[in-house]
């Protein structure tokens, strides 16, 4: 199943004309500056996919004249707040922010709005008066993980390695997953500050010590980075035949683990669709193309501070050993020769990737 593209033509919605009398729209509607703030570098997708895909789409929509001012907070919300304040003071036209901490960024969202700069929340739903939100359906992400694990180890005992309490998405992943774990016993459950793989490894080692490896029949890991930590902990405990382990993000290392059988599945979130939708939303917002903006935000979500926030929720796909070619390879996220490094070439042949 290939990714479903969320893309609309700006030209079909009125050309390059803003609202009459709207001083916020630049006189040359290709002369746009967008602030893009990403949260961290431990998860490789932000630097490797989201930023370059977003930038390329802005270039396409603005005939190469649009500027993307980029910053990555590397997991530090204080740094991200400084980065956002700097962009507001530099008078960018619009800000797209993936918050490190959804609640702690609210003051900067409010400041941006006070300065007349719209804010679009990306991937994580920032609190404060955001104009729109683009992400994946995070409850469905958890449902896919939970359902996959329940089918793999029906009636068994599992460990849950959840995401960061500061990330509102983590709560939705957890809620979605638990709704699908019918018949399973959650023997141990941990929240993981900062989605840190080393903290996930430590928590998994604690679960192994308390439960014993024989009683752990599966692990619901909320993302791929933490799944890597789980695998390390199990290996250090002497496990060679891994129980089913879930993930999310389709990181290259996770895809390799799925090929070799060390990880059972991941949730593939088509980053090109999300990043391109965000770029189109940002450009449409600056150009005051309300019809275009509404077409891109057909959903709505609530945050703790705001209700009925216009949103675009991109579909997700369960990725297993059987559909690697039809998902991440078909979408150009990973190439076969990048996945199939020398040490796993035989496993790649068995998975019919080579």
Task: Give an account of the 3D structure.
This protein is 40% helix and 16% strand. α9 runs antiparallel to α10. The strands form 3 sheets. Strands 2-1-3-4-5-11-10 form a 7-stranded mixed beta sheet, with helices on both faces. Strands 7-6-8 form a 3-stranded parallel beta sheet, with helices on both faces. β1 (33-38), α1 (45-61) and β2 form a beta-alpha-beta unit. The protein has 354 residues and is of the alpha/beta class. The chain has helices at 45-61, 77-89, 106-114, 138-152, 168-178, 197-211, 224-236, 252-260, 271-286, 290-296, 325-329, 336-339, 345-350, and strands at 33-38, 67-72, 94-97, 119-122, 132-136, 157-161, 185-190, 218-221, 266-268, 299-301, 309-314, 317-319. The chain has 13 helices and 12 strands.
In terms of DSSP E residues, the strand content is 15-25%
Strand order, largest beta sheet: 2-1-3-4-5-11-10
Tally of contiguous helical segments: 13
Per DSSP E runs of 2 or more residues, the count of β-strands stands at 12
The coarse silhouette is globular
Q: Secondary-structure element order, as H and E?
A: EHEHEHEEHEHEHEHHEHHEEEHHH
Kindly name the structural category: alpha/beta
Mean pLDDT: 91
What's the main sheet like? 7 strands, mixed
User: Helix share of residues?
Assistant: 25-40%
């Amino acid at each position: 199943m290939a990714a479903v593209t969320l893309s609309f033509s700006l030209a079909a919605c009125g050309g390059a004309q803003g609202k009459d009398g709207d001083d916020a729209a630049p006189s040359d509607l290709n002369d746009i500056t967008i602030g893009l703030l990403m949260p961290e570098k431990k998860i490789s997708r932000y630097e490797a996919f989201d930023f370059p895909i977003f930038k390329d789409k802005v270039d396409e929509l603005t005939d190469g004249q649009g500027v993307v001012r980029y910053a990555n907070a590397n997991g530090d919300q204080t740094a991200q707040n400084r980065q956002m304040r700097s962009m507001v003071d530099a008078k960018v036209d619009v800000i797209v922010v993936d918050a490190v901490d959804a609640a702690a960024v609210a003051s900067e969202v409010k400041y941006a709005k006070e300065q007349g700069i719209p804010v679009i929340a990306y991937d994580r739903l920032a609190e404060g008066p955001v104009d729109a939100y683009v992400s994946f359906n995070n409850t469905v992400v958890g449902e896919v993980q939970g359902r996959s694990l329940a089918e793999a180890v029906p009636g068994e005992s599992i460990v849950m390695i959840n995401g960061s309490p500061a990330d509102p998405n983590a709560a939705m992943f957890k809620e979605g997953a638990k709704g699908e774990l019918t018949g399973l016993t959650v023997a141990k459950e941990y929240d993981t500050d900062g989605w840190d793989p080393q903290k996930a490894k430590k928590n998994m080692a604690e679960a192994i010590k308390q439960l014993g490896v024989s009683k752990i029949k599966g692990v619901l890991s909320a993302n791929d980075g933490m799944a890597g930590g789980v695998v390390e902990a199990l290996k250090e405990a002497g496990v060679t035949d891994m129980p089913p382990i879930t993930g999310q993000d389709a990181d290259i290392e996770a895809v390799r683990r799925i090929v070799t059988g060390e990880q059972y599945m991941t949730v593939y979130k088509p980053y090109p669709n999300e990043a391109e939708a965000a770029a189109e939303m940002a450009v449409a917002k600056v150009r005051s193309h309300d019809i275009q903006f509404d077409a891109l935000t057909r959903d709505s979500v609530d945050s703790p501070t705001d209700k009925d926030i216009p949103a675009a929720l991109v579909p997700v796909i369960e990725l297993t050993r059987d559909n690697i070619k039809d998902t991440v390879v078909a979408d150009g996220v990973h190439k076969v020769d990048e996945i199939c490094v020398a040490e796993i070439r035989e496993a790649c042949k068995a998975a019919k990737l080579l």
